[in-house]
């Protein structure tokens, strides 16, 4: 049982995150995004976002620019040249509220909703 719980919690960090990683995580959390949600927006896996937040010493310029744009902050703020602005998250959008409700449904109902969404998105193309 403890092995399973350990996997859910992830491997603990052995070194403190870089300033860039701390700024990235803080800005992401300030706008209410999980690592997974941010990963989808930036086109990476959740594991890569975790890497950038906890261990990356030399993020690429492309990643820095994309992340700053998604997080609606400047590159200077993300790199720590300027302090992060205080970002007040707004209320969750109607879509976000619906997604949270869907996450609480049983897996079979979630799958049915996913099929409808997939069909709607496929017909949009």
Give a verbal description of the structure.
With 125 residues, this protein is an all-alpha fold. It has two domains: 2-79, lambda repressor-like DNA-binding domains (434 Repressor (Amino-terminal Domain), Orthogonal Bundle); 94-124, no CATH class. It has helices spanning 2-9, 19-30, 35-42, 46-54, 61-71, 75-79, 94-103, 107-124. The longest helix is centred in the C-terminal third of the chain and has 18 residues, at 107-124. It starts with a helix and ends with a helix. The model is unreliable at 1-9 (pLDDT under 50).
- What's the overall average pLDDT, rounded? 83
Can you name the CATH architecture of the largest domain?
A: Orthogonal Bundle
Classified in CATH, the superfamily of the largest domain is lambda repressor-like DNA-binding domains
Radius of gyration, whole Å: 17 Å
* CATH class category name of the largest domain: Mainly Alpha
Low-confidence stretches: 1-9
| Strand elements, count | 0
Estimated share of beta-strand residues: under 5%
Report helical residue fraction.
Answer: 55-70%
Ends apart, CA distance between termini: 46 Å
Number of helices: 8
Note the quaternary state here: single chain
Major sheet size, sense and barrel closure: none
Descriptive keywords:
125 residues, mainly alpha, 434 Repressor (Amino-terminal Domain), 2 domains, disordered N terminus
Which secondary structure elements does this structure contain, and how are they paired or packed?
Layout: H1 2-9, H2 19-30, H3 35-42, H4 46-54, H5 61-71, H6 75-79, H7 94-103, H8 107-124
Helix pairs in contact: 3-4
